[in-house]
């Protein structure tokens, strides 16, 4: 297994000293350097400490020698695509920052701007935080193991009003949902 600590650290703009200080408990830049280069064994304990400091899941720190990871090769800027000085591994976010569980909604049928094959990453919020989700797409559990999905347009007491994507849909109202999952990232195959 090859570790990706250096790639992820550089992608996040951290120095060896920054990462060492972010570990809990803090360690030395030399130790982080040895872990990156394989001069020191990357134990499960070290994986968990380094991953927490980098805000990624521990399994993101290693990759198989049999498969090459996807590479970021260019950046689309104001004046068009620009080549990077050096390609780097693409790190799919499993931790988008913030609190609350992450979940993924798989799109199988076109709904408004969503297409079949899209994966919509959502962050679970407490219903008391619904004001953060006003005018954003959310997934809300309903009774009987069902869900409602759409733009959160209203919150009155324990009632949550959603406008489903697409034209001609009528508002759905859910009473006392245990959580609201806010859309944070769309992954779309081309």
Distance between the termini: 30 Å
Task: Describe the main β-sheet briefly.
Answer: 7 strands, antiparallel
Mean pLDDT across all amino acids: 83
Rg on CA atoms, Å: 21 Å
Strand/helix succession: EHHHHEEEEEEEEEE
Helix fraction bin: 10-25%
Descriptive report:
It is built from 4 helices and 11 strands. It has 190 residues and is of the alpha+beta class. The chain has helices at residues 5-11, 16-22, 29-37, 44-54, and strands at residues 2-3, 62-63, 71-77, 80-89, 102-106, 119-125, 137-141, 147-156, 159-163, 172-175, 180-187. It is elongated and about 60 Å long. Strand 7 and strand 8 (147-156) form a beta hairpin. The strands form 3 sheets. It has a 7-stranded antiparallel β-sheet, with no helix packed on it.
Short description:
This protein has 190 residues and is an alpha+beta fold. The chain has helices at residues 5-11, 16-22, 29-37, 44-54, and strands at residues 2-3, 62-63, 71-77, 80-89, 102-106, 119-125, 137-141, 147-156, 159-163, 172-175, 180-187.
Q: Descriptors for this entry?
A:
11 strands, 7-stranded antiparallel sheet, two-stranded antiparallel ribbon, 34% strand
